[in-house]
Amino acid sequence: MRNLTIFLYEWKHFVGSPFKIVAVLLFIIASIYGLQNGADLYEKQNSEIERINKEAEIQKATTLSYFENNQKGPENRPWIDVTSPFWALWHTPTYHFKKPSPALVYNIGQTEQYGFYKAIRTSSSPYDADMTNEISNPERIQSGTLDFSFVILFLLPLLLLVLLYNIKGQEAEHGFLPLVFVQTGSKNWWLLSRTAFYTVLLLLVLFGVMLYGATLTNVFNSENIFGNIFLWVTLYLFFWVIIYFLILKYGKNTVSNTLQMIGVWLLFAFIIPATVQQWITIEKPTNLMVDLIDVSRDTKSEINVQSIDKIDEQLFQLYPNLKDTKVAQENITVSRLRRLSTSALINVEMKKATKSIEEENKSKNKLISKTYWFNPISYFQNKLNQLSNTHYNDYETYRNNIQESVDKRNELKVFEIWNDIKVDKEKYLEYNATLSNSN
Amino acid sequence: MFQIIKNEWRFLVRSRIFLGISIAFIAILLLSVFLGNYQTQKQEQTHQNATDHVRQQWVSIDEMNPHSAAHYGTFIFKPSNLLSSLDEGVNSVTGNVLRVEGHVQNEITHSEASQMQAVSRFGKLKPALLLQYIVPLLLVFLAFNSVSNEKQSGRLKLLVLQGAKPLQIILAKTFSVWLYGVLLLIFILIVYGILNSQSLTADILARTGLFFLSYGLYYFIISGLTVFFSARWQNATLALTSMLGIWIIWTIFLPNILMSSVEKWHELPSRNEFQTAMKEDRSKGLDGHNPSDKRSLALKEKVLKKYGVDSLSQLPINFDGMRMQADEDYGNSVWDKHFGNNRSVLQKQKQSFQLGGIVNPFISLQNTSMGFMASDNLHHQEFLLQVENYRRDFIKMLNDKQTFGGSKTGDWSWKEDNAFFKSIPDFDYKPTQISAVLSNYILDVALMILWTILVLTMIVFGTKKIKMV
User: Where, by residue number, does the polypeptide cross the bilayer (chain A) (predicted)?
Assistant: First the structure.
């Protein structure tokens, strides 16, 4: 009962402190602004995806009109023949998207480091130039968007500091701390009850702003995003509450408590992550993709100038069923058959090069993960990134899906060419259906 | 006043906490300079190896058709900058590799940030991180009770009775705290200078001097404001919490909000929109690979007339190369238009952000710090422009060889020998001189000077109302 009285009495303290009220209001404003930023990005990405899909539909309709009008292609490009599998597939617009999660409203994560749509061609790679981030101001990317996770990870501990900094210290400075202890019985419970009041207050504020965020991107339509993110936000809040509680418990006065609190915050928010990042880049400098460059130029040229026998041998090894195709069986001649099929062999080499890049990146990530036990903010940041599908791993999965889509396209192209297929409208629609499955 | 400053320092040096914090902080600063330098050197080595590798591939071309060589192209890697070991600016989020080839102006790709999971929201442990975020806090901690303590102990009254003017006391306290920040700054710059003594140039020294000036001004603003609050408020805690509030709003809150907002006020196109618009404009020009294109035919007529012949086979030159170059020239004008638009949007964003310095001097500090250390977006854009200019020269040399090198129109099997490819110069990055870009930072420096004057005015007029006890 006594603890409840202390708890409720803290409300009077709080409403009597304009400084603390302003801090909470600023926090709420920053949260709403952050949520709005996340929702804007979600909307922007969705409308961009919609726009690209519409463009693809127009391209598809144009190609269909060639079939309907018995044309081989655009008039000013006489070399195009959409009745051949090569050109029909060339004119089959396929995009691969990384559709934004509704949880983007809470955490933008690494979204702005990468692209979220990719035009798939047989020569595409997950490391193509169009896989980089959207056109944006690098100074803004560097400073980061003020999203809800930024508010949580960096401003929440500061708000907690503002709410807790003078607990116990103020009473000690005015000389009535012993009186408080006598009246409340246990100094630990007195401190805990007061800290608990602000913890509950912040939990209510966080729940409220997160609820507001949920209305912006239909968060409740997705599998327990709200619950999971709220759980991790709560754990993060408790992490700081415990640290600050211990500082208050063992602290002597307000100034020293404040300095210690801000010191811990600086250590976790700035010094440790910055040192870890510096260390990682020294251990593993930025990959300049020389292996990929070599494949995209030299290996590609080497494959293209190989003898027909060598190309056939490699293609049969890659696709054993190719031996059963019409061209292989009947030994018929298809114009530029091998040259049109080598993209599949180049794709294999590109995959080998990208695999080593991914391995290197993974080893960097492993190093980062090993620092989590003393680098809590990076841990919570990456946890939130995972929950909102904006973690490095989500983009790795996206890249893998792109690669699968490229593989599928290459295989389809090679088999269609080797089967000497004549493409008509139905076949073209079939291509669209087959390849769009990967979207 | 000098005597008061001397006394202040005597007190500070006697404090064990102050000495302990200073030694620990100097150790972190030293670590940041060494690590920053080491990382830059390591990145430079990686960059050099990659550049040499790609160049070696180019000069090893035995024989190749010049236009095929334009498609083969080359790669340019963004060089690391010696100054970026002090402030890395945008370098970790911009790409590092740019493909240079015919027909296409590629974007820079493969940023450091995209190659790993998230670590630090505020960048690496570079001196700028400590100088921008931590040193001002240290100054706040040193100054928040500098006057209130004197009031509580009665020393302030004593000093006034001894003949010191309140204004002198406040200014002396401000200067003594400011001096601490300036000494840390000088220390960093000296260590940096020693580590890089071999590579120091007049431009680097000028940039470092301006870097020092902007931090010096900002530290004065912070020190002056904190001492002012310490003098005006009745208790030290209020002065400390006020300054912490200002620090949070200035360094964490406002820069982020403002930067996000300016990108909304002056919007850049999405990549797809941008590429579609470029493609559309490009389609209105000449198609270098399509001889039956209307504009190609018009060019053909013009060239035939010029040479006074009836057919391409009679031409003493290779018309294919000429058509390719006409295609390039048109493509270049499209690039100038669209990338020019983007550059102007980015410039508007920057100008709007710079105006944020009116309410927040930290924004001005960030701008000047990155700018003077040649690692802001402006310097990045300058690099991209140099690459594009190189690309144009590079492709023109190849197209001119195709045109005037002795081959005939339609002879795509004609090849140039190794000597020609060796004769094509490699990209030579010319670091942007500070004199060429200084005008971009005058607003930031001017705003910091205005803030300094404002703080001085507050001290001068505010001290008249100070209660001595």
Answer: 21-39, 148-167, 195-213, 225-247, 259-280
